[in-house]
Amino acid sequence: MTRIVRAIAGLGWGMGLALAALPAAAQEAPAPQLPSAPATAEEGPPPPIPTTQFAGRSAFWDAQLSPNGTMLSFMRRKDGLAQFLVTGVDSKQVIRAFGTDPDDQFEWYRWVTDDKILLSLSRAGTFFGDDVRYTRLILIEVVSGIMTPMFSRSDVVQGDNVIHVAEDGSYMLVAIQKTIYDWPSVMRHELSADGRATTVETPRDGVWNWVADDVGNVRMGSGWKDGRLKIFYRSQPGGKLELIAKIKEGERADGYWDALQILNGSDEGYVLSEGETGRVGLRRFNFATRETVETVWEHPEWDIDRVTLKDGKPFAAYFTADRDEVHYFDEDTRKQYALMKKALGDVEVWVPSRAKDGSRMLVYAGNEADPGVLYMFEPAAKRMDEVSQLRPALDFRLLAQPRPMQYAARDGTVIRGYLTLPRGREAKGLPLVIMPHGGPYGVRDKLEYNDEVQLLANRGYAVLQPNFRGSGGYGDAFFELGTGQIGRKMQDDLDDAMDWAVKEGLADPARVCVVGGSYGGYAAMWAVIRNPERYRCAASWAGVTDLEKQLRYDGQSFSRGGFKRWKDRVRGAGVAEVKSVSPVSRADSLSRPLLLAHGTKDVVVPFSQYNLFEKATRTAPLKPETLVIKDEGHSFSSPENEQQWYDALEAFLDKHNPADPAPVTVAAAGE
To answer: Pairing mode, if any, of strands 171-176 and 383-389?
Structure first.
């Protein structure tokens, strides 16, 4: 099987969606002619790529197959609003299309059965005078088209913490507060239009996290109270919950630990936990004795990020080396995956969704210099058809190639990251953009396609993405180095990244800017406030400006899950309150150019964070340049809005930190 063409953009599933009926999947065709080699300094850089091409999107995203593989669901944007669609795979016809209130944001969805889908929505609101992020669940019944709100009368903040869904789709268990004054109960909600909600586990002081076994018996609860992590457990359904652990604040206990599943009729199950090597691996665990029975699988260098289970057994473990990787436990699946990678060539291959029997699967193929393609693969027919291109208008042959790098921070800590150099320019004295990732805890950059990185490289900038301390994937010890270090050592790591690039001769120290979004936006603002002598400018999209208010808005703002106490991780034991490292606290000292951008309907980092900072800079030596996108959320909901950000960022950098003019192309000898 040869790789399917990239030149057929718009002919597959994507274009047909605008017409409601989808045409047949595209067939293979001769591959377009590729350039013989990337451009060099002598050949000249590639032409400027319009921002419209970086902002362009496939017709839909977040595609999933129904359990039986006969339907394809996905999100799409139409007339500025997000829609959720279900189509027939064979008929290429839209079966159902659902929309929501413009104030709602889609968070996630999952197929429960071939007729039922659970969908999570969020909405910004207020709670005792503070901004908060409300989440709710919607049940979609595909055949009837009925949409039913779950817990619709509840006034609590978090309403989508699903801890179990019955195999037959008859009910789900949700950890939810009955009132704003209670700890979470576990509620059983029947999954039907007239389904009832009943309490199966009453609140317990200090317990915020509940865990059910594989048939829906609530077996464990945990949470922090009075400076201690308490873990309660019962061996038998209906038995008494016993306190089996009480860990003081500051004690390491088992390090990172996250319960995945408890097996019915047993005290054993699966957890992700730190082992003797410091790596997070998959363990079979005895919850009664709190002892590891065996290590099922652990990578020697990288943490496992997540695991999927099938029929009560591990199916796949996912981790990130320099790229996302997967380890399949089933030998036949491993062989199939290897064949797909061989067939698709030098790209990253990912299976985001598959039918329960494996008869159909969605396959992504792309890499850090190729936005990629989504295919529909039918193994029995040995057929792979293109479904959608992620950036249909973009010529991936013009993109730059990111590379891994590493440096030593000032305290000797090894920081890894990625460097993207502009094509066709000498790697010497370049203008540099440092681009810290969001999160920040448990999140990291990797070798994957990134629109902003490629846009900036195309414009002549070197782009450096450091995985500062606290980033995920490098072991629990590295992760713990970030405790209490937001705005402190985590920020030092960014400064040290600049010093490395300057020392290597790659960057001009007088032409360094910081650009980021969300936490990365915070780090960009803090860079020019904390160290204005270092940086030429900064640009922030949806950045956090007041850490304390953000934590009150969403206590999980900076988290990755598991038994971690996130507010203390941000503050740090014995470290001053986060007010001292919040950009808003020193906004009146801003003296470097700053592009401050935000969407008015952001439910992750509320727009009030923008307002606080903008107001605080009105007496500063230099006021920020601003971009407000009306009705936009945390991520871009339309190509037009994303292009606004790219155009504003390009103009801002061109004004305050212009790249060198493109070098003149040198003709080869004999031409």
So the answer is: unpaired
Describe the strand order of the beta sheet including 304-310 as a list of residue ranges. Answer: 304-310, 313-320, 324-328
Pure H helices in 391-468: 451-458
Asked if 515 and 539 touch (Cβ cutoff 8 Å), the reply is: yes
d(CA 659, CA 446): 25
Residue 664's pLDDT is what?
54
Q: Are 239 and 213 in contact (CB under 8 A)?
A: no
In eight-state DSSP terms, residue 232 is E
Angle (CA) 376-380-384 rounded to 5° is: 25
Backbone φ and ψ of 263, nearest 5°: -90, 130
The pLDDT assigned to 127 comes to: 66
Question: Distance (Å, rounded) from C-alpha 52 to C-alpha 66?
Answer: 33
pTM assigned to the model: 0.81
Distance in angstroms (rounded) separating the CA atoms of residues 584 and 611: 10
Assign residue 55 a region (left: φ > 0; alpha: ψ between -120 and 50; beta: otherwise).
Answer: alpha
Cα separation, 212 vs 201, in Å, equals 11
The residue length of the chain stands at: 671
User: What's the CA gap between 17 and 23, in Å, rounded?
Assistant: 9
SS (H, E, C) 524-546: HHHHHHHCCCCCCEEEEECCCCC
Contact (CB, 8 A) for 383 and 377 = yes
Q: Ranked by mean pLDDT, which of 6-20, 228-242, 489-503 comes out on top? A: 489-503
Handedness of CA 493, 636, 511, 507 (dihedral sign): positive
Q: 11 pLDDT band (50/70/90 cuts)?
A: very low
User: Helical H runs in 467-618?
Assistant: 476-480, 489-503, 519-530, 547-553, 566-571, 607-616
Least confident piece of the model among 221-225, 442-446, 481-485: 221-225
What's the CA gap between 195 and 345, in Å, rounded? 49
Helix, strand, coil percentages (3-state) for the chain, rounded to 5, are: 20, 35, 45
Q: Are 614 and 626 in contact (CB under 8 A)?
A: yes
Is-contact 183 204, C-beta < 8 A? yes
Residue 177: partners with Cβ closer than 8 Å, 6 or more residues away: 154, 156, 157, 158, 183, 184, 185, 203
DSSP state for residue 516 in the 8-state scheme: E
How many Å apart are CA 581 and CA 355, to the nearest integer?
48
Q: How far apart are CA 462 and CA 403, in angstroms?
A: 12
Give the distance, in angstroms, between the CA of residue 84 and the centroid of all CA atoms in the same chain: 20
- What does the block give as tokens for 308? 């999927």
Residue type for position 183: W
Structure tokens at 364: 């992504």
pLDDT at residue 475 in the model: 82
71-78: strand order across its sheet: 61-65, 71-78, 81-88, 94-99
Q: How far is CA 534 from CA 178, 341, 347, 590, in A?
A: 51, 44, 38, 13
- 56: pLDDT strictly greater than 90: no
H-helix or E-strand spanning residue 303: none
Give, in order, the Cα–Cα distances in Å from 73 to each of 22, 200, 306.
Answer: 13, 32, 23
> Reading across the β-sheet that carries 268-274, which strands appear in turn?
257-262, 268-274, 280-286, 291-297
No. of H helices and E strands in the chain? 11, 35
90 contact partners, CB below 8 Å, separation of at least 6? 70
Question: What's the whole-number mean pLDDT along residues 508-526?
Answer: 97
Q: In this model, does residue 566 exceed pLDDT 60? A: no
Element (H, E) at 637: none
Render pLDDT for 201-211 as a digit per residue (tens, 0 to 9): 999 988 988 99
